[in-house]
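Box 3.1. Reading complex inputs
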Amino acid sequence: MGSNPVTWLGSPVFPKAAKAALADTQLRRNLRKATHTIRDKRAKAVAELPDWEQLRRAGEAIKDDVLSNLDTYLERIEAAVTARGGIVHWALDAHEANEIVLRLAREAGTDEVVKVKSMATAEIGLNEALEAGGIRAVETDLAELIVQLGNDRPSHILVPAIHRNRSEIKEIFQREMAEKPASDEPRDLAEAARRHLRRKFLLARVAVSGANFGVADTGSIVVVESEGNGRMCLTLPEVLITVMGIEKLVPTWRDLEVFLQLLPRSSTAERMNPYTSVWTGVTPGDGPQQFHLVLLDNGRTDALADRVGRQALRCIRCSACLNVCPVYERTGGQAYGSVYPGPIGAILSPQLVNDMHDKQAASLPYASSLCGACYEVCPVRINIPEVLVHLRAEAVEAKGRTPESVGMAALGWIFNDARRYENAQKVGSLARHLAPSGRISSLPWPGSKWTSARDVPTPPAESFRTWWRKNRG
Amino acid sequence: MPAPRVGLFATCLTDTFYPSTARAVLRLLERLGCDVDFPMDQTCCGQMHYNTGYREEARSLASKYAGVFAGYDAIVAPSGSCGGMVREIHPELHGSSDAFARTYELSEFLVDVLGVTDVGAYFPHRVTYHPTCHSLRMLGVGDKPLQLLRSVRGLDLVELPEAETCCGFGGTFAVKNADTSTAMLGDKMRCVLNTGAEVLCAGDNSCLMHIGGGLSRLRTGVRTVHLAEILASTEEEPWAATP
Amino acid sequence: MADTRSVVLGRIRRALADRPSVEAIPRDYDLSRPLGDLVELAAERIADYRAEVHQVASADVPAKIASLLAARGATRMVGPVDLPSSWRVDGAEWLIDSPSLSIDQLDGADGVLTGCAVAIAETGTLVLDGGEAQGRRALTLVPDYHLCVVRTDQIVGIVPEALARLEPTRPLTFISGPSATSDIELDRVEGVHGPRTLHVIIAVT
């Protein structure tokens, strides 16, 4: 098994990538506008439901049930899909999944597939693998199309081109499309995408999709979307190949009554997204007559083995945590070096990579001030700060002895004894650890990281405990 | 009802850098009839260790805390962050203990346990309040600090835009991801300056050290003052900046 | 890939060596909710997505269909095989999906007329299940205009009530307004690949 393409080869560690992103003022403006727009809308959409907290708790419990009995539910969905005329494939990693899709596309005799936006296929680098095998993958979601035509990388789970504003999108479309957009108005840009893709939809023979949910009991697959590109792909071609992460299951049809409320309000902040498609195997006379379901592991079973970290597998990819994250808002998604950016990416990507010696992956759990805004909005109550801290401990363990670990051990030793602590206070060394301080303006690293933008407090004449001893002791 | 026996958990940062805050808590609680003690064996809650990935060091500090603060009716900390560490994380590290369950952030203790919002304070300044992340999201103090501030005589409270957005401190985050932290700080300072307040108030000296350090670097003239110091201030004994 | 199958299932079983116990799913969320007049609410919420909504008495549905089509100048209309004959109004040529219409025929039509299976008032959603007066999924997808007739007895309050009425193994399409996107600056605009115009007639019984 090669390295997991969930993180992009050659990506710098997060602080370095963030520094570059922060210097891009256009990016900062685009992100601020988009995240603030959606934040307020989400809050309103959620406030409309009096039972939001109960729905979150139910969503959490249903997903925990899925994870705890994942083997049973996978066998169940396999049987149900097969009984309804679908074909189920299993893929251990990205390479295996890509090979399966490539083979199926070739067997269908096509050199082009249309794609519905899917995180799973982005995670495994399917487009690149198909391209290498001589098959063109056409992204049909507007934002994915912007990324693909711009030869760019995604920066958001729901809206991969969130880092682009309308005038940048217009430039990309003008450069890449036969029929140019009329203006940079979103309506005209959407119209340009419609014209660009229309014939491809109507002529496509093979489509590739992901899945938002798979119902174990019935074998029904659910795709939630807005533009209708999903319906085009799921309805018109002869062959449909769906790549689904093994954690995307719900046990029963009824469970969707929870998720079809949680997901749209959390992601696009709508009461309901424009289109949701549900299909089960093959329906004679309606839609693709050949249906393949590829069940993808690609590191998920490693994450499942981690008793704290496994809650990340509850994720329904709504991206609410990205939209409220103060770090994401400023650095954008590409700084995370993965198709999964933001708070969920900071806990999911390192677990899928499953190698804390990988410096880039190990830097992701530190890409958070632990403010907790992500946990507050998560529709399936993933305690992201808890997992971040848990993964930091794994990163520390993997690194072994470092100047930081030596310093932390020394500080722990000092804190473990009030007399040592008081002595350190008196000689000023504690102040250096805590502030990090010592002098007022410019300090050697890591203190300089602080004093580059902030003054440090002047240590007072006496600590509180010294005062207490003198006056109350 | 006998006076509650309160253990003051000053926190290592306040003990070392901001003794005036700890003295303000003491004055305030004694004024409200509490019997306040400062157990000298206390040090640090271990949050910096825990949040940076040094769980074992944090565990031993959690155990130390459980011993040092055993037997008090309540333990009060002038910090949502350290209070959150103790109440939410310590049980997971050490196992449950009365000392953890009875630990309160100052505004919680005043409003929920003592049942007061008007603490008889006087503070004739224009003030804006930053709700710190852990007080808000770990402890859920809600608007308790604002209830307390609204009852302070002379105080002109102005709303902070984007108040609930993190200031960018995040402990070692400020050093490990210094550029991002600084960008967050810049936005927070802009919001503070837009209010026209003379004083930025919060319930955590760590965040105040961060925001105050930035405000001071820019020579804005806006002062940062811990909630406890505003609540301790009276007409007879008004708040004075520590030299 | 029977081999990979057993590898993956084996990895899952090892990962779950602790077999975390699962508590019963708390289903204390609302299964229905007092929402007042469901017809009014459905009309308001569907219109919120910038779909046009008309409430008429059942007997007046054909006349409403005729006037909407005339107003649009829609003269080539697609319909499922079981489209009620009274809905096949004069003034339009009716392309009935039997034998199956080609994609080009669908693409060349001015619109499609269907019924629906369920409508959800709170979310302003229509659900089609390929049942009575609905036809296969492509019919309501390729034409640029969708006119949908909803009977008041098909309207439920909230999502759980709708799911309880639906059979999941039928091909289902949930439609909330015309096609739209939020992909440009996270702001919603209507009209991408699916029908760009959605009109709804609520037939009050």
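In summary: Residues 167 and 199 of chain A are 26 Å apart (CA to CA).
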